[in-house]
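FAQ: What does a ligand-bound record look like?

Like this one, built around adenosine-5'-triphosphate:
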Amino acid sequence: MRYSRYLIPTLREAPSDADNVSAVLMQRAGMIRKLAAGLYDWLPLGLRTLRKVERIVREEMDRIGGQEVALPVVQPSELWNETGRWKVYGKELLRIKDRKNADFCFAPTAEEVITDLVRRDVRSWRQLPAMFYQFGLKFRDEIRPRFGVMRAREFLMKDAYSFHADDEDAGRFYEVAYQAYQRVFERGGLRFKPVEAQAGAIGGSFSHEFMVLAETGEETIVACTQCSYGANVERAECLAPRPGAPEAPKPLEEVHTPNMGSVVEVSAHTGLPATKFLKTQLYLADGVPLMALVRGDHELNEPKLQTASGAALLERATDDQYRSIAGCDVGYAGPVHLPRWKDPKGQMVTVRVIADRSLEGLVNGLSGANRKDYHLANINAGRDFQPESYKDLRMAVPQDPCPRCAGLVEFTKGIEVGHTFKLGTKYSEKMNAVYLDAEQKSKVMIMGCYGIGVTRVVAAAIEQNHDDNGIIWPLALAPFAVEVIPIEVDDEAVREAANALYKSLWEKGVETLLDDRPERPGVRFKDADLIGIPLRVVISKKTLADREVEFKRRDQPKAERLKLDEALERLVDFAAPASSPPVAAPAAS
Ligand code: ATP
Ligand code: MG
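The answer part, i.e. the structure of the complex:
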């Protein structure tokens, strides 16, 4: 491609509303332009990288036997009503009406549509397993679109759905898809980590998020320093801490704590460390009061509490409800001598108490006394309060024990670029996606789904690979592998040498950009750094006098000289890893 004939409108300044590195660099490099909140035009340079990601993903989906389809972006509400998601999906679902006033939505995902296709056309056990995938535009009316294409409203997703005769096969294929995802991100040249996305029982979880590691990532990842365990912080499993030194239980004692509702204040007043505190939080679990207890230095994790409580609806108690349940304000409630509660119908109900695992065996702890301005000291678990259960209720913290090995965990940041999920019969049952087994018995299919945010991968790659001057593309995702810059564009020898190299590189399959613009070299070097092509080759009168060219890798500081007659071969070698590895005949999925 000749730069002079190609639209790469680079910008010296960052657009004022670009709110992270990749949004700034993608716009400055002329890859994208913003049309409206969360809507972006992809320009030629940006699209080339997007297609690189797409190609890698497609090859890896084909390799595991995926069958590519293309499903409509406008979906009828009937299908969404069958699964009940028309009601529960909320405002992220962009609902539209056609001229007959019929309801449709713009696809945010495609479980309903693919399940509908499969229930009509896949009938026999002989056709299973089957995996279908597509590259489809998705629209989600995100509350706060931000970070450029990273959290956009319209984005390109690779969504894949697999159908199986039984659970065992779905489990087997989950592993196959997981490996394919690993290969996608490895081939993309990205540092990444698959993390558990569901607090599963030991032995494995059936949902994983694939995170590109970057300090600027939105997601916090809990990762073991010794084994491969990783989890999203919201889902990371927390074990009970190792027991401390033994201590003799002391008698309960009231402590006067006027106007001290927080752990910090009471800790300063009593001299007790936060690890001795029982932090309480009141909820209504399906209308029944529930007190959750975590240690003073920990934070409660509401989704974990919801699972532990078994409640369909978990609501935080209001200040008024606090007073009516515990008889005091927030900050003074505690599990000892909890009164029974008169519910709105006048019935007396017992307040449920669930405690985090780290409070089991607590000796001489401190909590609110259910009385204004008082706390209780020397609370002993079992003696002074007995929760209905000790469960994992808290958020993980750095240095927690790893739930899989004897190591400790640390925190890092990442960007979620992919998600694998074992769905089971969630959709197939409601939509009656069944097949006939070998005995002609009708059975419900088991499903899995697997998404990759193709547009988000582009932005994540930049978040991970850039410097002050611009993007540093991993070779596999670069819009071009090589950029040739002739210094004196008016000099015939220079121009011819550059043209010849440019042509030969394309003939050898190396995607090359020739910056033939009549701009000062400084301007072109700046642009080259900004758009981040992995290898820059400079040809000038000076280098030609030595029958040489200068080349510089974008990820390394120093330029080197190369003999003109060796240049082609060296450049072809450099670019070779970016081409696709051979794809063997796809396995039966
Ligand atoms: P998030 O938690 O980031 O909102 P999600 O759980 O809603 O993601 P999925 O429904 O699992 O995402 O979608 C599959 C993939 O699509 C995600 O892993 C992500 O890479 C991508 N994705 C989701 N929402 C967006 C968005 N608003 N903009 C760009 N990519 C997105
Ligand atoms: Mg989302």
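Follow-up question: can I read anything off the structure? Yes, for example: Residues 199-204 have pLDDT under 50 and may be disordered.
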